[in-house]
């Protein structure tokens, strides 16, 4: 009888220890979940926000040895949802982006996120230890959490810091990822490997200028996730807008950073090879949207303001189009790189804008 009692006591002690370990790991994660707030009231897909309270380890993800989509997902889940059997698919990304400079020197970046799958959006506030505060945007459809109203979907939202598709940090650096039609980049030069959306987090957490962002990216081998290729548009508070691309004509997919005012889904470095309203092989597509943005910005040269940026986003926005992965504008954002604020509209509802800032107000 004494033996049985000892076994039961030992089992109880193990359960208590396990519960304490789990509680210690998940206490701030549950705080993050508790911060989830619905900001809109549409019938289907909505806008949410979340404050990331847990202290994620970006270096742990960067050093995880990512070499394919599954190892990318495994690294994200190990960091954001340790101890739990959660599964997730690798996300895709579309879009248009540009930099607008007001007459008074205010810098703005406009961004349309275009993707065929309808998605709710989440504003993700991060304040990492030793890094810069930021607010970024995640597509909740990519983690099967379009309606985060139960424990399973709310837990999935804990991956949000690592799946954001655009964002702005406290130094005035903004970044957006856009898809391309070339073969997915997979550099293998011996540097640590950086996956697509982890690059967004790296820049937001650690870059104070566009130049710093480019140099950070140069320090890694890029792995383009989800079987697609991508480029990154980066702007800072000085108005330094560049597109970071991995040259589709280079055997080693060399990183090239090109100063541009606007981008869509074609290689800016090969823009002369791209025609509007058609596919252009590995060079990409979407030049007609690029030309619409450029026309709006040029027409308001010297007198641009926030409404100019919204007009450009409207001009480049897209309705759903059968078979086009980069159609169907899910959200549109105007980032103010100067005063660290932003405004977002979802599902092309241009009359409803949600304004926000890095202070979270």
Low-confidence stretches: 13-22
What radius of gyration results from the CA coordinates? Answer: 21 Å
State the oligomer: single chain
What is the count of helical runs?
Answer: 8
Helix and strand sequence:
HEEHHEEEEHEEEHHEEEEEEEHHEEE
- Fraction of residues in β-strands: 25-35%
Largest sheet: 9 strands, mixed
- The helix fraction, in percent, is 25-40%
The chain-level mean pLDDT equals 91
Q: Give me the count of strands.
A: 19
Q: Please state the structural category.
A: alpha+beta
Q: Give the strand line-up of the largest sheet.
A: 1-2-5-6-7-8-11-12-13
| Separation, N- and C-terminal Cα atoms | 62 Å
Estimate the global geometry from the Cα principal axes: globular
Description:
The protein is an alpha+beta fold and 361 residues long. Helix content is 28%, strand content 26%. It has eight helices and 19 strands. A hairpin with a 4-residue loop joins strand 7 and strand 8 (174-180). The radius of gyration is 21 Å and the shape is globular. The chain starts with a helix and ends with a strand. Residues 13-22 have low confidence and may be disordered.
